[in-house]
């Protein structure tokens, strides 16, 4: 389970977040201190473009995110100003029973801090997708049947679904014991009225306080249409093969064909000239024998 920051970030597709921008987001989250709130969530295959911040202590392994991976996680470090940033990447992710990989993951963490940022970007180029073979799997995906055991608690009901993949939310142990037992039903009813506002995937919050209204409206428009496409489409967009719009002929092949055409034209002109010369010789000859004399 992830201890995820309650603030939501707008999806970012196409390319991973640059390290300097990821470091700026993490430093800003750290500056809020105790004002930031976190929730325990079960992450299950976040969709393309998902971005979220979570807490993870030093030396603690990354919780499962639902994906399986054919490659090991690679890491490198860089400096953004005076702050050291570590970037850990995986590029061959797939879900349960999938035949090809289609997801990449990159996580960023600041040296000496317990906050990390995760960003998922889908692979749209079929040439970069790898077939899934059992003997090549480095990390196995989560079986959907195990989600029930992960999200169910005997004493507390499962809360609403989060926005990144199939991530059922449930309260942290600190929140469960924050108030007396007698007052929990009242607190639960208050959460039921406020939860839709908190769980709404609106690109609003401290991370977007400087954004203009048009950007927020455009992001909501794209998000709603993507959700409708995911609901009503009979095929998953992850497996749609894009149509190749570029021609197969390369500039080198076109140049070679032009040279071949020019060579054929020169050969044809030479044959036509030779034929005209022979016909002129025949017309000026008195007899056929004179035109083609036979040597004794």
TrEMBL record:
Biased composition (Basic residues): 180-189
Residue ranges of the region described as Disordered: 147-208
Compositionally biased spans, kind Acidic residues: 198-208
GO BP annotations, alphabetical order: chromatin remodeling
Domain SWI/SNF and RSC complexes subunit Ssr4 N-terminal span(s) in chain numbering: 34-114
Protein name: SWI/SNF and RSC complexes subunit Ssr4 N-terminal domain-containing protein
Organism ancestry: Eukaryota, Fungi, Fungi incertae sedis, Chytridiomycota, Chytridiomycota incertae sedis
């Amino acid at each position: 389970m992830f201890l995820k920051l309650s603030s939501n970030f707008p999806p970012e597709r196409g390319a991973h977040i640059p390290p300097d921008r990821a470091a700026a987001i993490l430093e800003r989250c750290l500056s809020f201190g105790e004002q930031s709130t976190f929730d325990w969530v079960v992450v299950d295959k976040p969709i393309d473009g998902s971005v979220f911040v979570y807490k993870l202590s030093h030396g603690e392994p990354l919780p499962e995110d639902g994906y399986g991976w054919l490659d090991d996680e690679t890491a490198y470090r860089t400096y953004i100003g005076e702050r050291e940033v570590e970037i850990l990447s995986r590029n061959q992710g797939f879900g349960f029973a999938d035949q090809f990989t289609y997801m990449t993951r990159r996580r960023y963490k600041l040296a000496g801090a317990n906050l990390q940022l995760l960003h998922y970007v889908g692979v749209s180029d079929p040439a970069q997708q790898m077939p899934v073979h059992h003997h090549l799997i480095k990390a196995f995906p989560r079986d959907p049947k195990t989600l029930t055991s992960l999200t169910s608690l005997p004493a507390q009901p499962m809360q609403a679904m989060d926005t990144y993949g199939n991530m059922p939310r449930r309260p942290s142990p600190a929140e469960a014991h924050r108030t007396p037992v007698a007052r929990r039903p009242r607190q639960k009813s208050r959460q039921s009225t406020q939860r839709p506002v908190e769980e709404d995937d609106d690109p609003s919050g401290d991370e977007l306080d400087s954004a203009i209204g048009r950007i927020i409206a455009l992001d909501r428009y794209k998000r709603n249409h993507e959700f409708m496409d995911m609901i009503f489409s009979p095929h998953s967009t992850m497996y749609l093969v894009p149509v190749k719009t570029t021609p197969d002929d390369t500039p080198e092949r076109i140049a070679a064909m032009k040279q071949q055409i020019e060579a054929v034209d020169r050969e044809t002109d030479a044959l036509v000239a030779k034929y005209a010369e022979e016909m002129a010789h025949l017309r000026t000859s008195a007899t056929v024998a004179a035109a083609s004399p036979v040597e004794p």
